[in-house]
Amino acid sequence: MMWPWLSLASLLCSTSPIPVTSLQRNPVFSGIVVEVMDGDLIKVKTKDAGSHVVQLWGTDAPEADQPFGPAAKKYLKQMVLNKSVVVSSYGRTGWVSVSTEDTLTKPIVVNERMVSAGYAWWQRLPDNPELRIDASTLVKAEEAARKSKVGLWSRADAVAPWEWKKRGKSGG
Questions:
Q1: Residue 62 contacts by C-beta under 8 Å, 6 or more apart in sequence?
Q2: Does residue 172 belong to any structural domain of this protein?
Q3: What pLDDT digit, counting tens, does each position of 139-160 carry?
């Protein structure tokens, strides 16, 4: 039986399932970001030459054809492309938090930075016991970004990606 979180497309290119049983944030692997696929999806190459497609936990960036979609991808690319990162997983969901590995400065929690800069919404997760994780940091980051009108919040007509998809405006 496949791990249920593999179907979430969070670690699509993993050469082997990485079972995570705790609901805490757990380091899973580290590697170099070799591709930024969109504003909340990256590809990380590990030292063993494996690669993992990683969905940023708790974030939902605008779609590519949506206002701020290309800007979100560009911002994420500037932050992580060709940089060393540590990927942590929450629960058995496969959703991950990515921190940059930088010994000179405090590590950046990429997920939080995307939301606080106004390039992603915090993702309203379904009422599922496996997903009951403290998202207060992301909630506060979004509230601050909205209040400061940064990034996508500079537009009064900002539409969440899940609403954009419902309206049939996204090709994906």
A1: 39, 68, 69, 72, 119, 120, 152, 161, 164
A2: no
A3: 899 999 999 999 999 998 999 9
Q: Number of structural domains, the chain?
A: 1
The answer to whether residue 171 sits within a structural domain is: no
**Confidence band for 38, pLDDT divided at 50, 70 and 90:** very high
Minimal CA–CA distance to 55: which of 68, 69, 39?
Answer: 39
The helix, strand and coil proportions of the chain, stated in percent and rounded to the nearest 5, come to 30, 25, 45
How is residue 41 written in tokens? 């999806």
Instruction: Give residue 49's domain range.
Output: 4-166
CA distance readout (Å), 106 to 100, 102, 142: 9, 7, 21
Q: In what order do the strands lie in the sheet with 41-45?
A: 51-55, 41-45, 25-38, 84-90, 96-100
Q: Pull the structure tokens for residue 136.
A: 């207060």
**Structure tokens that stand for 133 in this block:** 């994780």
pLDDT for 64-108, tens place per residue?
Answer: 999 999 999 999 999 999 988 888 765 544 455 677 766 556 677
Reduce the DSSP state of residue 2 to 3 states and report it: coil
